[in-house]
Amino acid sequence: MSKTFYQESDDIMERFELATERISTIKDDRDLPEKLQQYFIEVAEFIMTVLSVMNKAISGSLSERSLEECERDNAAIFGIYAKDRYEKSFLCPTYAAAQLGQELGGPLSAVFYEVTGIIAAAFAGRTDRFTIYLELFLQIYGECQMEEEDKYRRESIIDALYSFKHDYSQLFISEQVISMIDSEYDFYSNIIMKDDLSDDRYMYKYGMYIGPNERQIAAHLRSLPKEDVVAMARTYVDGYIKGFEVCGKDISIKETVGVESPVGFELMTREAIRLFNEAGLSCTVRFGGTTSRNLYSTVPNKQCLYDHKDDRAYYWDKGMADRMLEVLKNTYEKHKELAAVFGGPAVIETFGEAPFEPANFEANAKYTDKQNEINVYYASQSGQITNEYIHGEERSFTIIAYPIPEIGKDFNEIFNETVAVNRMDYDLYKNIQQHIIDVLDQGESVHITGRGDNHTDIVVKLHHLDDPAHQTNFENCVADVNIPVGEVFTSPVLEGTNGVLHVTQVYLNELCYKNLELKFEDGKIASYTCSNFESEEENKKFIYDNVLFKHDTLPMGEFAIGTNTRAYVMGQKYGIADKLPILIAEKTGPHFAVGDTCYSHAEDVPMYNPDGKECIARDNSCSILRNEDISKAYFNCHTDITIPYYELGDITVLCADGRKLPVIVDGKFVVEGTEELNKVLEQV
């Protein structure tokens, strides 16, 4: 018998009925200035649209809808995000500010975005969650009627948002944690494991946007022989289990794995859950919507997501951060036994969506410098709390990626090639990469340069090997936590790592960066720029927000050489290099990660390569501070930036005795034993 987060009560139902009845009458009100009243009418109409689904969930008829009804509900609810409609909706901060003024437009648009949380609540039949969003909306409506001046209305709106987030943090944060670590909360896994996956109606139960990608990928997986789907699932599950083995971690003390999967991949996910169960691991599947992984679907409007990414700025302060941290700590403490046996996430990523280049608008919420300091504080503290209960030295993960139909007319061929890339020869690459490591381990630093329009020129300092016969600087990464095969990586010594990293175009977390340039001094970012926007101020803020994650600087946490030339050729052959996820893109050239090292929170766990040598480059001068002040050791981010082979000049190992050992020259591997990698490159 599965658990639920919520038991329906007469009190909740009474509040639900009162709220929905009042909202149904707003369309007839004329109590406020015309444009302000129109805002409340638009949000009320949206709520009433979603209410029709909520009522079906309450009556038990949601599963009885025909496919046509499912599609109509999907179009009616998620139509608010359609580009043309969004830009003329109060959900868009720029439109809201133009209609209501900057004083009210931004905060009220943020309230509208917050209220869209009723969608997931409706499909899950959660009248408690549905009701509290409605009560927030009605409270703000009442406050705006009571106040006559916009500046006082603004204060009331922000106060209401603050109270809502503060008072219900127990509900939101605790459910987020529990649904990750307790497999008995299984609303979404029940659908995956028990529904008829030959009938598209199952995916319309989640409460997520369902578009062509979701429907077509489900159809594609149904067209494959079952043994192929099982093989895909086994690659994914085996990678997770191998991740524990290669890191020397004991998987036998773990009981739960967090499955993170896109809608449409249920045939594969079902087989993976079955395989995990056979390996003694139960699975959690929690709601992700379009804002995170977990169980997720296509983002219907990425600009909307970008416009609202900093809405928390309206109410964010130290008191709110501490309240949320308190709830997080208490939740983990209450469920510490479950947290201790959670093994980490197993992630299926997708790629192929049209590249997104965000536009910055003045009406969007913006953090103050003080709030950015609180963001860094909150990320650090929440990371420490999580690691206290889910120990970094004991957990692992795996990530695998597949294309979606939006990638274009060659989808079937690209999908098949990706499956092949994900299942490449483990032993072949293990041996090839060992040849590269044998050369790298002779050096005290590595010099990397670009060619053509790429002006990368950087020297990466390596750790000293006291016992080269038994120690190495580079991990031989084959196919375990990061599928597919194809990289050797290290955590550089920061002091002595200097120079410029540049790439003409790169996609990081689905955002495009043009001419991204980072200058490093003693391993830390000293300056940065790009050419996305006309003003240098906008370019710097774009990087500060989305690469530095509001830190003044970040260290270089990783230097790696990608060796998967087949994945590189796939990107070039089909013209999809700009659509490859970082998981695959990082294998298609050298890459540099800014933020934490690859061994974050597990630096003290010995790590050995297949040849038996211990990887000793697990720390740097930032991470080592965990022994003095853990808040200074970790940055809670790790962003890989890859130089593709066609922009790569040379990679040369610089030895203490003056020798210069080439690894790559003009984008081609020159180490003896790596000839196989160049054979593939010659196809381009």
Provide a descriptive summary of the structure in words:
The chain is of the alpha/beta class. It folds into three domains: 10-167; 178-299 and 334-362, no CATH class; 425-681, no CATH class. Helix content is 43%, strand content 17%. It contains 24 helices and 21 strands. It has an eight-stranded antiparallel β-sheet. Strands 1, 2, 3, 4, 5 and 6 form a six-stranded parallel β-sheet that branches. A five-stranded antiparallel β-sheet has the order 10-11-15-16-18, covered by helices on one side. Strand 5, helix 18 and strand 6 form a beta-alpha-beta unit. Helix 10 crosses helix 16 (318-334) and helix 22 runs parallel beside helix 24. The N and C termini lie far apart (56 Å).
Task: Write a concise synopsis of the structure shown.
This protein has 684 residues and is an alpha/beta fold. It contains 24 helices and 21 strands. Strands 14-13-12-8-7-19-20-21 form an eight-stranded antiparallel β-sheet.
Percentage of helical residues?
40-55%
Shape: globular
Distance between the termini: 56 Å
How many E-type strands?
Answer: 21
Instruction: Tell me the structural class.
Output: alpha/beta
Biggest sheet features: 8 strands, antiparallel
Cα-atom radius of gyration: 26 Å
Oligomer: single chain
Number of helices: 24
Strand order of the largest sheet: 14-13-12-8-7-19-20-21
Low-confidence stretches: none
The mean pLDDT is 93
Question: What percentage of the residues does DSSP assign to strands (E)?
Answer: 15-25%
Please indicate the count of domains. 3
